[in-house]
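User: structure tokens for this one?
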Amino acid sequence: MTEEVLMQVMPEHRCVVVGVDGSPNSIAALRRSAREALSRHARLDVVHVLEPGESSTPRLWRAAREWLRLRDLVARTIPRSQHLTTRLRIVYGVAGEALVEAAKHAELLVIGARFSSEHGGLFGGDTVPVVRDRAPCQLVICADQTTDSTASL
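Assistant:
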């Protein structure tokens, strides 16, 4: 008599990751990622990256303060019905590398970017090239089309 072993494999929770720094472009990315998470039936991970050594405030206090700011920004930006499937994360590191790490198990990473930089690049800043080259999942780059920049972290 042969015994069959039935294994139930549970897929890892589906996840969309978005990097948010409070800029209009990151707010556009937050809105887009919320729509994507909803349509994919996935959790939304909102990540704010703090550079080490940017502040003299103790690391724990700074992270707590930034988490509260991020919570308020998300509450003002995405529909209340999605808050139960949204996880807020404060991480320390270099933005591009930290977002790549945060998206290690995600199915989508969404970031905001300026259309041009003062250095002549198509996308401003150092984050986009790193994320574009190393993202472990699908990547969407958003830019805000309005001039309203009332939200900030």
